[in-house]
Design brief:
By secondary structure, this protein is mostly helical. The chain has helices spanning about 1-15, 20, 45, 70-80, 80-105, 110-125, 130-140, 145-170, 175-180, 185-220, 235-240, 250-280. Keywords: Cell membrane, Membrane, Transmembrane, Transmembrane helix, Transport.
Length: about 280
C-alpha cells in the first residue's frame, strides 16, 4: 500500500510542480472563445455542450470540456498545487501544535499541566468539525489561509491525545530513567529521548490530517465556501452542482472526485505503511 500511495502522491506532486508539462492548456484557455477562428466552435457545436469527449473536437482536450469551454484535464492538473498546499500546510500546522502538547501532557501526566491541556482538548472536541469551519470561514472571509487555519485548529486534537498516550508509556522505559538519573533536564528528556520515538506516530497523523484537510477543503468548496480566486477540485465539483449538470455531464464530476479520493487514499496508505515499518507486529 505504501508503494501505491507513494506513486500516486509523486504523480500529483509532479502535476503541482510542473503543470504546464502535463496539461495541454493553461486554466484560462477556452475552446470556443478566442480570436483565432480555428479554435472556435460553430454556434451549433457550442449549443451541444455538455457532450462527452470525442476525437472530433477541435484541439487535443483529454476528458473533454466543461460548460464554459475550459479543458477538464487541464483544470484537474493545475488544481493539484492547491490541494497539496492545503493538505501539507494544515497537516504540518496540526502536528506542530498537537505533538508538542501531547509530549508535555504525557510527560507531566496526572499533574495540573496535564489536566489543563486535556480540559482544553475536551472543550475543543465539543465543537463539530465542519460547522466550526463554516462559521470561521464565514466570519473571517473565504481564503486559503483561513481554511488552513480552521482545519489546523480542529485537527490537532487526535495528535495530542495519542502522542500523550505514547509518551506516558515511553517515560517509564529504562533509558528515560537512566537519563533522569544522569541529570538530564526535562526538556532534554522530552525532545532528545522521547520525541524521536514518537515521530513515526506523528507522521502517521500528519498524513491523516493532510488527507482530512483536502477532503474538508473540497467539502467547503462544494458548499460554496471555497476560495473561488483559486482553482481547486472542490470548486470544479461545486461548478457542476451549481450549473445543474450532475446527472447530465458526469464526466465533469467524476475526474475531480477521483482526484480527491485518490490523493486522500495515498496519504492514508503512506501513513499506515510508515506505522507498520516503525512498529512491526510479530
Amino acid at each position: 500500500m505504501g508503494v501505491i500511495g507513494l506513486f500516486i502522491l509523486v504523480v500529483y506532486v509532479l502535476w503541482a510542480l510542473f503543470p504546464s508539462v502535463f496539461a495541454p492548456h493553461n486554466p484560462s484557455w477556452r475552446l470556443f472563445v478566442g480570436n483565432d477562428p480555428s479554435t472556435r466552435l460553430t454556434l451549433q457545436q457550442s449549443q451541444q455542450f455538455p457532450h462527452p469527449p470525442a476525437f472530433g473536437d477541435p484541439g487535443f482536450i483529454p476528458l473533454g470540456t466543461n460548460s464554459t469551454g475550459h479543458g477538464v484535464f487541464s483544470l484537474l492538473v493545475y488544481a493539484a498545487k492547491d490541494a497539496l498546499y492545503i493538505g501539507f500546510a494544515a497537516g504540518i500546522l496540526s502536528s506542530l501544535v498537537g505533538v508538542p502538547l501531547g509530549l508535555i501532557s504525557g510527560f507531566y501526566g496526572n499533574t495540573w499541566i496535564d489536566e489543563t491541556i486535556q480540559r482544553i482538548v475536551d472543550v475543543m472536541y465539543g465543537m463539530p468539525f465542519l460547522p466550526f469551519l463554516i462559521v470561521l470561514v464565514s466570519i473571517r472571509g473565504v481564503s486559503q489561509t483561513n481554511i488552513i487555519l480552521g482545519i489546523a485548529i480542529t485537527s490537532w486534537l487526535n495528535n495530542c491525545i495519542l502522542i500523550r498516550g505514547e509518551t506516558l508509556s515511553l517515560k517509564e522505559r529504562a533509558y528515560v530513567e537512566s537519563a533522569r538519573v544522569a541529570g538530564a533536564s526535562d526538556t532534554r528528556i522530552v525532545f532528545r529521548h522521547i520525541l524521536p520515538n514518537v515521530i513515526p506516530l506523528a507522521f502517521v497523523f500528519l498524513a491523516q490530517d493532510a488527507a482530512g484537510a483536502i477532503i474538508a477543503q473540497a467539502s467547503l468548496a462544494y458548499l460554496g465556501l471555497g476560495d473561488f480566486t483559486n482553482n481547486s477540485w472542490g470548486i470544479m465539483i461545486q461548478n457542476v452542482k451549481s450549473k445543474g449538470y450532475v446527472f447530465d455531464a458526469p464526466w465533469w464530476l467524476i475526474p475531480p472526485g477521483l482526484a480527491i479520493t485518490s490523493i486522500a487514499a495515498a496519504f492514508y496508505f503512506i501513513g499506515f505503511s510508515v506505522e507498520d515499518l516503525a512498529n512491526p507486529q510479530e
